[in-house]
Amino acid sequence: MAKKKGGLSRGLGAGIDVLIPDNSGDTSSNSGVQEVDINKVEPDKNQPRKVFDEDDLESLADSIKQYGVIDPLLVQDKGDYYEIVGGERRWRASKKAGLKKVPVIVREFTDEEKVLIALIENTQRTDLNPIEEATTYKRLMEEFNLTQDEVADRVSKSRPAVSNALRLLNLSDEVQQLLAERTISSGHARALLGIKDKEKQSEFANIIIDNRLSVREVEREIKKMQDDKSTPSAPKKKEIDPQLLAVYSEIEEKLKESTGTKVSIIPKDEKKGKIEIEYYDADELERLVEKLQQ
Question: How far apart are CA 73 and CA 38, in angstroms?
């Protein structure tokens, strides 16, 4: 059983600071913020986040050009370079912004602390996709011999939340990739767990995408499959007049121009449907809300 660390057990809600070893008595240059050559800083190859949104990085790079790097990177001295423990997103954006040096805090970390800091930072500042999160939980269990309860304690989640996240790793590789890319939602993915055959999971995932099925529609169809022991198929939908679809397409373009973001009209039949408006960060959501309230 892995030894429990007092600071770590306080979990995500306590913030990254609880995971930084207390070097208050350390009078060396490592006890504070340093400016180091950005080319001497490298990411941790084992950090949880594998996908970085380019638009998000460009936005952060613009902010860094204007205000600089507000939060120093957490790094570990590896001799001939500094390994990033927390702050890879800021490091990538700083490179885009053309910075020559970045502020860092140099500390020593255990392997478990490194994994947890990366998990905490990604969860607090820009969400991991569900597969990255599940993979990190699995890594904590396998590398540090933690139980699901202990992982839940360290990341301030309920045990069922951790368990449900781990179940997503039972999906086919193709479905996991679609979930990681957010082409399907976690709700869709959890519903697909009702199909044991991974090839059929992938087949039905493509049906979800092609037919823009809601989570409820997927759940109903999979239940029907289980009852009938049939193969996946798209639920029958009423045909929409192609001329009406063309009108919807024009309306989507007009709404995109007026809102400044992607808008989709999803008809259920020729009278009913829904409109989806996408946003990519909290600021954009606030802007859209203000615009819609005008």
Answer: 11
Q: Regarding predicted confidence, which is higher, 94 or 284?
A: 94
Kindly tell me if the per-residue pLDDT of 169 is higher than 90.
yes
Name the active-site residue from 54, 58, 88, 108: 88
Residue 55's φ and ψ, nearest 5 degrees, are -65, -40
- Per-residue pLDDT of 20-51, as tens digits, reads 444 444 433 344 889 999 999 998 887 766 67
State how far the Cα of 112 lies from the Cα of 104, in Å rounded to an integer.
20
Kindly report whether the global pTM for this prediction surpasses the value 0.90.
no
Active site residue 199: no
> Alpha helix (H) ranges present in the chain?
54-67, 88-96, 111-125, 130-144, 148-154, 159-167, 173-180, 186-192, 198-211, 215-228, 242-259, 282-293
